[in-house]
Design brief:
Strand 2 and strand 3 form a beta hairpin. It is built from 21 helices and 19 strands. It is about 35% helix and about 15% strand. The chain folds into three domains: about 1-265, Rossmann fold, CATH 3.40.50; about 275-335; about 350-405 and about 445-620, Rossmann fold, CATH 3.40.50.10320. It is an alpha/beta fold. The strands form three sheets. A nine-stranded mixed β-sheet has the order 1-2-3-12-11-8-4-5-7, with helices on both faces. It has a seven-stranded mixed β-sheet with strand order 15-14-13-16-17-19-18, sandwiched between helices. The chain has a three-stranded antiparallel β-sheet with strand order 6-10-9.
Length: about 625
């Protein structure tokens, strides 16, 4: 395993036979990939040959396509000699369906460049079942007729799928019809506004087809892809993880941003590659990692544990495991606090949050309703009980997560209310929230998206009421969400102004926010960027503000990354569950309990055992007055 820095400023590692280009962010990585694609197109054009490209869909390749469009417009990059073949297509979707990959490619690339339409190929998702096998064979033949794939662009799914080659796909498989894995369908549910709308099958190039490409680039952004990237690169190739089968390719590059590469051994444990600077954070990472690896609490680690695991240099700096263990144990112990808003009149030197002011203004920023309950429901309850002024700010309405079935159910209910002649509307049993929906939805101008937004707003009101925070919510419903769609979110100056105005009005002492570690094209990633873009325009309150980062869904901070650990009691856990139950089950579908896993990590380190621990990392922005 070798590593170095290439001239473009990204770090490069070689893991087995695979090159990994690790850029600081997705935009930098996308530029490097787009430049390679452009080089192939130009070289082939000069030779009078077609450039045959295998293209991918989803959110990951979007920045690559954006850079190619820029190069076409500003640098004269022509696609006249390009023949493209897309990896896959949902089976049963018409070409003009908004979620078909034909529509995706038109929106993200084809309609913006000069590629001849008859040279842009996407599998036919509407072919009759009895003709699928022949259609797939002809797709393979079309690739070969062009001379084979010069370049194949890939993303990677949580199951390790490439294209729609799900676990179990054989290394010699060809273009075919497959059944989608349940996890893949769950991940696509947002795009289709409900799991019930996601197709159950797709046509995909096979692993063998992909491996025949002369050059392959696999892209991944965000911490959510880190685990599967590590498995694909560091574990033995297996058909249970199709992306791992790329290891044997003669020219394969994984283009990653720093978050997607964060679990690779060469990144996670840099001391295995040579000397490192032993900062406080690096020491904590090394000792926590060692404790988890050897299965011993921190205080039971001995010199030999360090020596056998590449940490001799660190051990020599402190003389003995005993001294080092105590140092790291105390620092980790100091992250635990039952006072996330600061403990009044306490000594602040070893506490994550200052005691003053005693009553703080606290803002919770949620990308959409529902994401706040699991990672910080206990903290919210604790802050409210300890007398702080808590404001829950939902940046978007969350309407895109509401299924069509939910809309239909509400419309049917309203029809029944209307048929009752108004009797039910005066009933004390009809909740005020439903009355609000009745009044707003009775307006014929109300769109389906507005109905979806009202439904999710109603869910959030019930959830916050369970946490005694029903009077503390702000629904910004930022316009970029209402007018956009997943992969196409583009905040405007209006969004920034609405958001900034509210922050400057609330002037918080603490802000809890997520998204820094996410895929930048995801909703939480877009919301993080919006948040970060406004920092320079914050008022004087920014000088006394703390920013605490949380992880959405089932994601979690690793134990060494935690700066504040808030224990959750069994009663608080039960309260969180009540709040979460106010949302439809699909919001939390397939989400592991991150707070429980953090508690288990702390327990394994030899710290007190808690029901759950809600973990946060302190963000220190570089902003000026």
């Amino acid at each position: 395993m070798n590593n170095g820095m290439n001239p473009d400023g990204c770090k490069e590692y070689v893991i087995g036979s695979v090159r990994c280009q690790v850029s600081q962010d997705a935009d930098q990585a996308a530029v490097l990939v787009a430049q390679r694609i452009a080089q192939i197109i130009r070289e082939k054009s000069e030779a009078g040959e077609p450039a045959v490209l295998g293209l991918a869909t989803g959110s990951t390749p979007v920045p690559v396509y954006q850079e190619l469009i820029r190069m076409h417009r500003e640098e004269g990059l022509s696609f006249q000699n390009v023949h493209s073949f897309n990896l896959d297509e949902y089976y049963g979707l018409k070409k003009d369906h908004p979620e078909s990959y034909q529509s995706y490619m038109q929106a993200q690339l084809f309609s913006h460049v000069d590629i001849p339409q008859d040279q842009a190929h996407v599998p036919d998702g509407m072919i009759a079942r009895e003709n699928v096998e022949e259609s797939c064979r002809k797709y393979e033949e079309a690739i070969e007729a062009c001379g084979g794939l010069d370049f194949q662009l890939l993303g990677i799914g949580r199951t390790g799928h490439i294209g729609f080659n799900e676990p179990g796909s054989q290394a010699n498989s060809r273009t075919r019809l497959i059944t989608l894995d349940p996890v893949t369908r769950i991940d696509a549910a947002r795009d289709f506004v409900g799991l019930e709308n996601v197709p159950r099958a797709a046509i995909t190039m096979g692993v063998g087809t992909i491996l025949n490409a002369r050059e392959i680039y696999l892209l991944a952004w965000g911490r959510g892809k880190a685990s599967v990237i590590r498995k694909a690169l560091e574990e033995s190739p297996t058909e249970d993880l199709p992306a791992s089968l790329l290891q044997g390719h003669q020219k394969i590059i994984f283009a990653l941003n720093a978050m997607a590469a964060s679990e690779l051994t060469c990144v996670r444990s840099p001391w295995t590659n040579g000397q490192v600077t032993w900062s406080e954070a690096m020491i904590k990472r090394a000792v926590h990692g060692l404790s988890h690896k050897v299965g011993k609490p921190i205080l039971k680690l001995v010199d030999r544990d360090y020596q056998l695991n590449g940490l001799e240099e660190l051990l020599s700096l402190y003389g003995s495991a005993y001294e080092l263990n105590i140092l790291v144990f105390k620092r980790t112990q100091a992250t635990i606090t039952g006072w996330p808003g600061g403990k009044p009149a306490a000594d602040d030197r070893s506490r994550p949050v200052p005691s003053d002011p005693t009553e703080k203004r606290i803002v919770i920023l949620a990308s959409e309703p529902g994401v706040e309950c699991s990672p910080l429901g206990g903290t919210l309850n604790r802050l409210q009980k300890q007398g702080h002024q808590v404001s829950i700010v939902y940046l978007t309405s969350g309407g895109l997560t509401v299924s069509g079935d939910a809309v239909n159910r509400l419309q049917n209910l309203l029809a029944m209310i209307a048929e009752s002649g108004g009797v039910l509307q005066s009933s004390e049993n009809l909740s005020s929230g439903l009355l609000e929906l009745v009044k707003k939805i009775s307006d014929e101008a109300t769109t389906e998206q507005a109905i979806r937004s009202l439904i999710r707003k109603h869910h959030s009101a019930l959830a916050m009421s369970a946490l005694n925070l029903s009077e503390s919510t702000h629904h910004l419903s930022l316009p970029f969400y209402e007018s956009g769609g997943y992969r196409n979110f583009a905040p405007s100056d209006q969004d920034r102004e609405v958001f900034l105005t509210l922050l400057n009005k609330l002037q918080p002492h603490q802000i809890y926010v997520s998204g820094k570690m996410s895929d930048p094209s995801s909703l939480e990633g877009v919301c993080w960027q919006l948040f970060e873009d406004t920092m320079s325009d914050w008022g004087e309150w920014k000088n006394t503000n703390q920013i605490w980062l949380f992880r959405e869904g089932g994601d979690r901070w690793e134990s060494h990354e935690v700066d504040m650990a808030v224990p959750v009691s069994p009663d608080e856990r039960a309260l969180k569950e009540v709040a979460m139950a106010k949302y439809p089950v699909e919001i939390f579908l397939d989400k592991m309990d991150g707070a429980l896993r953090v508690a288990n990590d702390y327990d394994d380190l030899g710290l007190p055992e808690y029901e759950e621990i809600e973990a946060f990392q302190l963000h220190k922005p570089s902003i000026t007055a």
